[in-house]
Amino acid sequence: MLAAYHLGAIIYGTNLLAPHHLKGALEYFGATASFLPASVVILVLLVQHFARRDEWKLQSQALAGMLVESVAWMIPLIAMGLLMGRLQAATEVRPDVIGHDILEAFGAGIYEEFLFRLMFISLSLLIFVDIFSLREDVITIAAIILGALVFSLYHLSADQLSHGSQLPWAKIVSRTLAGIYLGTLFVHRGFGIAVGTHAFYNIYTVVAKLQ
C-alpha cells in the first residue's frame, strides 16, 4: 500500500495532507528529503518488529486473513457512514480521477492511522503509563477518544475552524465515532488491520459515489 501510494503520487500528484504535514514536521528538525515520511513509517514498524522479537518470515495465510478481516471490519464503518449521511453528502468523484482518488485512499489509510492511532495512542501509553504509572485501561480509552476527536478536527479547513458557530457538527461527530472505532481496532487488532479497514472504507466511498 505504501509503495503503491508513493508511486501513484509521482504519477498523479497528491493533495493528501497527512504525509505533507509529517514531512513539514521533519523539515522543522532539519530533515528535508522527500522520501522521509515513508521512511519514518517503515522505521517505526521495524523498531516495533525488533522490540517484539517477531519472526522474519512472510506468512501468506496471515496476510490473506488480514485482507479478509479488513474488509469485514469495513462493513460497520459503511453502516455508520450511511446512518450519519456521510456518503450521500460527500463531494462527488469525477471518473477521470478515479485512480488518483483510490491511491489517496491508500495514503490516507496509512498516514492517518500512523499519526492518529499508532503514534498518538502509543506515545500516550508511553508517557502516562510507562513513565507516570497511570492506569493503562483509562489512558487507552482516553487516548482513543482524544485521538479520534483530533482526527475529526484535522479534516476541517482553517476557515471552518475559525467560525465555531458554523462548524459541521454532523461530520465532526461522524468522523469522531469512526476514529473511536478505528482506534479500538488498532488497540485490539493492530496497525495493519486499522490501516486496511480505513483504506478499504475510503475506496468504498470513492466507488459508491460513482454509482
Describe the model.
It is a single chain. With 211 residues, the chain is mainly α. The chain has one domain. The chain is built from 10 helices and no strands. The protein has helices at residues 2-12, 17-28, 36-52, 60-84, 86-89, 98-131, 136-154, 158-162, 169-189, 191-208. Helix 4 (60-84) packs antiparallel against helix 9 (169-189), helix 7 packs across helix 9 (169-189) and helix 9 packs antiparallel against helix 10. The chain starts with a helix and ends with a helix. The mean pLDDT is 89.
List the helices and strands and how they pair.
Layout: H1 2-12, H2 17-28, H3 36-52, H4 60-84, H5 86-89, H6 98-131, H7 136-154, H8 158-162, H9 169-189, H10 191-208
